[in-house]
């Protein structure tokens, strides 16, 4: 009988854990990078029409607003390229491409996931244009759409990240609490039969 009680307790705890964690999963559904132009560590020999980042699902652009979205391209000397006019189309964030002299570049990107969290990272690439390609002029600060300037995004090597908020903490805390309560109730029910 003791083995049956242990099995029943374990099965009950597994069912409750699976149910609670299944409900908590949407709180962790941040968009992630699927593809980009350029790709990490690539060498561009022709200027693409646009620089872009495509994620696994639609981005959160309320009423067509691009607040919270950005692509910044800068060279090894710290000069920025592009007009700052980003476009959000479903899962893709893009900006018209512009580059200066041949060399190493970094594309910093930031977007708003469908769940409302900000996700950002950087892509390092090289530019090796053919002879005769006229380079664009860089600026000391990143452009914003309409020829203004903006503060640069945080730079440096980083993994895509997402900011946790209070709702995530509450989901996780509630999930743990529900598992503990279910385990206690299952234990009391099983031991009471003895």
Q: What does this protein structure show overall?
A:
This protein is of the alpha+beta class and 194 residues long. The protein has helices spanning 2-24, 166-192, and strands at 33-37, 43-44, 50-55, 70-75, 80-81, 86-89, 92-96, 103-112, 118-127, 143-144, 148-149, 161-162. The chain folds into two domains: 2-26 and 168-192; 33-159, Immunoglobulin-like, CATH 2.60.40.1220. It contains two helices and twelve strands; from the N terminus they run αββββββββββββα. The strands form three sheets. Strands 2, 4, 5, 8, 9 and 12 form a six-stranded mixed sheet that branches. Strands 1-3-7-6 form a four-stranded antiparallel sheet, with no helix packed on it. Helix 1 runs antiparallel to helix 2 (166-192). The longest helix is centred in the C-terminal third of the chain and has 27 residues, at 166-192. It starts with a helix and ends with a helix.
Task: Provide key terms for this protein.
single chain; 194 residues; alpha+beta; Immunoglobulin-like; six-stranded mixed sheet; four-stranded antiparallel sheet; 2 helices; 12 strands; 29% strand; elongated
> What Rg is obtained from the alpha carbons, in whole angstroms?
24 Å
Structure classification? alpha+beta
The mean pLDDT is 82
Q: Low-confidence stretches at least 5 residues in length (pLDDT < 50)?
A: 156-165
Determine the CATH topology of the largest domain.
Immunoglobulin-like
Compressed to H and E, one letter per element, the order equals HEEEEEEEEEEEEH
Annotation, overall tally of beta strands: 12
Question: What's the level 1 CATH class of the largest domain?
Answer: Mainly Beta
Biggest beta sheet summary? 6 strands, mixed
Coarse shape: elongated
Tally of helical segments: 2
Fraction in beta strands: 25-35%
The portion of residues assigned to helices is: 25-40%
Tally the structural domains.
2
Distance between the termini: 9 Å
CATH architecture of the largest domain: Sandwich
């Amino acid at each position: 009988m003791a083995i049956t009680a242990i099995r029943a307790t374990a099965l009950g705890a597994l069912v409750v854990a699976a149910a609670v964690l299944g409900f908590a999963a949407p709180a962790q559904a941040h968009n992630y990078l699927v593809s980009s132009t350029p790709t990490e560590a690539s060498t561009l020999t022709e200027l693409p029409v646009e620089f872009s980042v495509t994620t696994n699902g639609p981005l959160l652009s309320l009423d067509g607003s691009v607040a919270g979205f950005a692509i910044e391209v800068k060279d090894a000397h710290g000069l920025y390229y592009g007009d700052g006019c980003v476009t959000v189309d479903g899962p893709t964030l893009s900006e018209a491409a512009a580059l200066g002299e041949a060399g190493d570049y970094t594309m910093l990107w930031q977007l708003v996931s469908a769940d409302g969290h900000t996700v950002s990272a950087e892509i390092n690439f090289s530019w090796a244009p053919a002879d005769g390609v006229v380079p664009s002029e860089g600026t000391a600060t990143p452009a914003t759409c309409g020829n203004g300037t903006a503060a640069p995004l945080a730079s440096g090597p980083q993994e895509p990240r997402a900011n946790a908020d209070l709702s995530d903490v509450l989901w996780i805390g509630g999930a743990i609490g529900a598992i503990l309560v279910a385990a206690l109730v299952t234990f009391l029910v099983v031991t009471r039969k003895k």
